[in-house]
Amino acid sequence: MGVTYWLTHVRLETGYRRDNGVVSGTDAALFHILIKDGKFARITPATEVLSDGIDQRDAGGLLALPSFVEKHVHLDKTLLGEAWRAVIPVANIIERCEIEKRVLPGLPTTTQERAENLLAVLLSYGSTHVRTHVDIYPEVGIANLLEVQKALETYKDRVSHEIVAFPQHGLLRTGAKGLLREALAQGATHVGGVDPAMVDGDIEESLHQMIDLAVEANAGVDLHLHDPGHLGTFTMKRLAAMTVEAGLQGKVAISHAFALGDIPAPEAEEMATILREAGITIITSVPYSRVIPPVPLLHQNGVDVAVGCDNIFDTWQPYGNGDVLERLWRLAERSRWLDELSLSQSLRFITGGKTTLDANGTQLWPAVGGDASLVLVEASCTAEAVARRADRKAVFFKGNLAAGALDVVNAEEA
Fold this sequence. Notes:
With 414 residues, this protein is of the alpha/beta class. Helix content is 30%, strand content 26%.
């Protein structure tokens, strides 16, 4: 992390243009950014002549955005590196799990190799932080965790991470509590769970075991909740109550949360209040095939929302390309975010809450002293990058070029 250089001719957003009080466009200008020890050390207009002898990398007018956060992926499930195969039809989630248990151990590639293949793809699209779920169940113990940790070690200078110890086949159904405890002791950062009613058959006990493990290990919680309607919202209410009781506010997430999209808006607003007060994050993969949580309503009511890709070519789905910006584009289209401000501000859902400008047009990012993790894209502004799914040309993680390429100008050549 000791490298020092100027990233020159970087396009940064500087404010919004307004027409009769309505945001009609985004202003941007070119800057030079000094990167030192993985941080933004200085930001100066590109009109300044650099004569300090420090090496330079020319961004060529590309737009800089905060690097992306992939909040929901399964590194241990992907088939990337294997020959093409479509998905075998099943009647329910239990059958799907059984197929996966049969297929994955017999593959010629290792879990580590496939996880590294997926990490390379995620990084190429701009994600420098991932939250990966790793299946934990009796037949494999914590073997998947150990393999994924090897892959993450390979990418430690390019990607940061969180790991969810995930009892895909049911926490109660497979008696996995002891294995999850072992996984947490071996480096997992979150306790996972899936459909306490439909998979585990006992909402209270399933949630209690998740919370108990999280408190014991000082870990977070990430519950996969596919259950629809009032079954789903009841489960969320119980999780919210237990979260507050355990003092885990800000450390709990619900992935999918389809039930929030099944209920009327007034009830969804009531649920938003419950989720906000419990500090629970909602994570959506924006699937085409299901109703999704009402992201605009949740955000307006103070609920943290994040977007992730979820399945990427595995035994569950033959789809997915690892591009979380594309998932945001999908969310923007479904949410009818058509104007400059809505598109620009939507970036927060794939950057861990970061936007380049606040709603008033004040520049928030980049800031001197902040981590120099960024993506250079071919776009004039954030709104265009989201709406047009801008090409990513270079990705930096804490000052280091992690993917893509830029021209390097040595000090004596500058």
